[in-house]
Amino acid sequence: MTTPVVLLPGLGLGPESYAPTAQYLSTPYEVVTLPGYGHKVHRDDDLRTEALAERLARHLTEPTVLVGHSATCQVAVATALAHPDLVTALVLVAPSGDRRASSWPTLIGRLLRSAVWESPRLVPVLLKQYLRTGLASMAKAMDVARRYDLAAAAEKLELPTTIIRSSHDRIAPEHWTHQLAERTGGEAWTFPTGSHLPVLTNPGELAAFINRAAGVYNRQ
Q1: pLDDT at 60 > cutoff 80
Q2: d(C-alpha 54, C-alpha 59), whole Å
């Protein structure tokens, strides 16, 4: 029996960002969007990481593997800390959240250095999702997310944690993902290709780690 999976899109992205990866999943899954992470931010939305975690927890009806991407890795961690009975494992994909690199100039610089490695074929896919969420909503969500201390939160985790990045990702550099792995007692892996969007560029490789976290094993 496998554990169900909840997939959290990254900043500005929607359910379709996980479509390539989902094709390889061998366990029930659901994509949950949040304000700034799949749909627009409304006036009364509380964007604090802990508040988004409570919003996410309302979707969880049984023990679940949480998969975060970029800034929603922080939401996944906060949910696991607040509701340990509802989260069996974490898969953190290209996690942002390094407080030492949380200023806007540093974030934008890392974003640009990551983006140059992405395929131009992704532009229409990303643009559709970003326009739906809205640049203003994305900026509001990121302005709150960048203040969350993911490294400090990670030290409190007591569940299996897998951290994934791609080789050209400057938002989630290797030293950062290894630091998170040390603090969680988990494991860090780097895919040899891709940048900040392994959900789109490395779907088979990523799904293999998600399947493993959910208790799916290769029977061949």
Answers
A1: yes
A2: 9
For the chain, where are the E strands, in sequence order? Answer: 5-8, 29-31, 34-35, 38-39, 64-69, 87-93, 161-166, 187-191
End-to-end CA distance of the chain: 17
> Rounded CA gap, 115 and 80, in Å?
30
Question: How confident is the model over 1-31, as pLDDT tens digits?
Answer: 789 999 999 999 999 999 999 999 999 999 9
Q: Are 165 and 194 in contact (CB under 8 A)?
A: no
pLDDT value for 219:
39
**pLDDT attached to residue 11:** 98
CA distances (Å), 73 to each of 44, 49, 68, 78, 98, in order? 23, 10, 4, 9, 12
94: left (phi over 0), alpha (psi -120 to 50) or beta: left
Handedness of CA 78, 71, 27, 180 (dihedral sign): negative
- pLDDT mean over 151-167: 97
Residues β-bridged to residue 92: 68, 163
Q: How many CA atoms lie within 13 A of 35 on its CB side?
A: 22
Task: Give the whole-angstrom CA distance, residue 99 versus residue 186.
Answer: 20
pTM of the prediction?
Answer: 0.96
